[in-house]
From TrEMBL:
It is found in: Cell outer membrane. Belongs to the TonB-dependent receptor family. Residues 300-748 form the TonB-dependent receptor-like beta-barrel domain. The keyword Thylakoid does not apply. Residues 131-229 form the TonB-dependent receptor plug domain. Keywords: Cell outer membrane, Ion transport, Iron, Iron transport, Membrane, Receptor, Signal, TonB box, Transmembrane, Transmembrane beta strand, Transport. It comes from Aquirufa antheringensis. It is a multi-pass membrane protein. GO terms for molecular function: carbohydrate binding; siderophore uptake transmembrane transporter activity; signaling receptor activity. Coiled coil: none annotated. This is TonB-dependent siderophore receptor. GO terms for cellular component: cell outer membrane. It holds the Pfam family Plug. The lineage of its organism: Bacteria, Pseudomonadati, Bacteroidota, Cytophagia, Cytophagales. One of its GO terms (biological process) is siderophore transport.
Amino acid sequence: MLASIRLILLLTLFSHVIFGQTAQLVGNVKDLQSRPVSGVSVRLLEGKKGKLSNEQGLFEFQNLASGTYTLQASFVGFKTLVQKIQLEEGKTLSLSLELVETTTDLKEIVVVGQLSQNEKPVSIGKLPIRPMDLPQSMMTLDRSLLEAQQVRTMSDALMNTNGVYIMGATGGYQEEIAARGFAMGSSNTFKNGMRFANGMMTEFSGVEKVEILKGSTAILFGNVAAGGVLNLVTKKPKFTFGGEIGLRAGSWSALKPTLDIYGGLSSKIAARMNASVEEANSFRDGVSSKRTYVNPSLLFKLSDKTELLVEGDYLQEERTPDFGAGIINYQIVQVPRERFLGVAWSYMKQEQASVNLNVTHRLSTDWTLKFMGGLRTNSSDLFANTRPNAGALISTDGTWVRNLQKTDLQEKYGIAQIDLTGNIKLGQMNHQVLLGADSDFFNTVTNAYNNYARYDTVNVFASRTYQNRTDQPTLTRATTTTAPVNRLGIYVQDLVHISEKWKLLAGLRYSYQQTASEVYTFSSAKTAEAVTFDGAFSPRFGLVYQPTTAHSFFASYANSFTINSGVDINNQALPPSLIDQYELGVKNELFGGLLSANVTAYRILNNNLAQNSLINATTYSYVKELAGSVQSEGLEIDLMSKSIHGFSLNAGYSFNETKYVKSNTYIEGSLLKYNPSHTANLGISYRLNGFQAGITTVYIGERFAGRSTRIKVDNDAYRLIQLPDYLQADVSASYRYKNIAIRAKMANIGDVISYNVHDDNSVNPIAPRNWNVGISYLW
């Protein structure tokens, strides 16, 4: 079916390519300090045509009739510029526009609906491509939406993103993300373009916007999971002085003071500081958390063409590990939502610190050179009971013998990346070009300790009372694993503007990865070492057809890869598994750009999935073969409006089916775990002067946890656990009077219950109805 649709679409597209001898208009927009201004609306009033300036302040009109036009450039906070221009046939007019700030203080006014969803290019894409020109599904949650919904967690943010969802919350100290059926580990999550460790709860007080690129991004980042990538953009320095100091309080004794202050230190240096401290208990008895966050940044204007942005990010937290309610015979235990089954003194301590430098040098109006370098350290220290059913099963009467576990981890990560982007015209075609290279490394040291068996006994139903221990025994170290990873990639990408209606995106990346492992076992005083070398090409092709400026049809193919562990039957290291991704879609700007309406269909196919080898009846789990197959297919619908009489709409729906197509281990046709078949979201907000209110709803369909049944195990006890669907709604309201803002939010107003489940051993209920209020002073 999809193959037929692709063929029809491609045949239709190739039948309409048109070239013409017309005039062209290119230009750039700057402020009085010669800084580029992005998002400026540049319009030719006679032809009712409009463009938005990109990150470098550049804009371009193609295939214009010769003649006199009235050009208008407008952007909030600047005076509207209007001037007459003359275009000649066969020639290109180049303009440099300078905008002057208005005298009205607009620095803290949030303007809703200035840009539609299809007018917001994402910085994570490296090349500033207009979303309508990009043959890929994407989404941006900007500051106005995050503030209107009072987003505080990743779960809050992902209530707005169909096809991207929380798949688990193992231990209650993390939010595990997935997209299109594939888990998004730390290689798929970025902050300001640099990977961050997502094994701890994300702090949102310093986040300006959330960017999501769905589908394949291997050409940009190499070894990433197939579902997509997520990028958090933090608040940037400003030369105008301002800030906000606030205090929030909420359910379960939550208390959070925040600070955001920014301003120019000189005409060439601007700074910003975000900070917060938070302490809270939980709806789970005996569970608590505390965290500290600091996010400083400095912007140096080194010259009219060169800027240096330095950003730091520090997060430290301690939480009570909570592995949830437990499972008996692959059924979730029905106990009160507040009952905590863990050891009272247990802890999970985590810390993450990073610094990154971004240098932007504008070589000319058409070419820009960017360099990004960064370092990150993160550590964790877990001492708690083992997960229910991990080593000691819960008996049918609820009796559970608790064991203890302890691990600690230290990781260092670094990256250097350089990108050259530009615009060049060859013949009648314009090219947006990206040339780049990146190199990064991980060095992870993990200490695992011998479990402490039979620490004490509890009954999950509280039908029997046992004497619980409160002491912290000393656990002996079992292994130390050192795992360095070094990666290198070079890539090229070209968006060819064949004509005003046709665009072709083509690119190629080569990735090289060295993965090593050194495991020292204390009981034997022996070290096991291994090292593998992998390389892979990642191509990308996409075709875009725009019959009008308001409609864009696209089809694309991309290839990515995943690294495999183990060896084949000849004791040779397994090569990477290659993953094919196909995408078809349409992007629309309806009702004069008031509503963005996008539809995307996709197929992701891993036809050489690594699975245990059964050749020659081998029983070694590390001996594998690339003979399995996993397929993900789905459909996504995204709707987002500009503000209409104060009302704004954000809605979406997704369908996904991720299953084993071929397997010698699991039932063919069975679904992979954690992925809801259906998700949907709807958000409506209203703004009038200083008042704002809204409701945000999310539907998560049925999905599976537990363990997939193995076909080669007789009477296998493993079973999948079907988790019920649920609909959650949050409401929020705020009012600002002069310099004072009051905000309030109630989450899960229907008090629905559901669970995030990892395998059969971390069953974490979602939070019941809860509230928080805040007051802030802004200047």
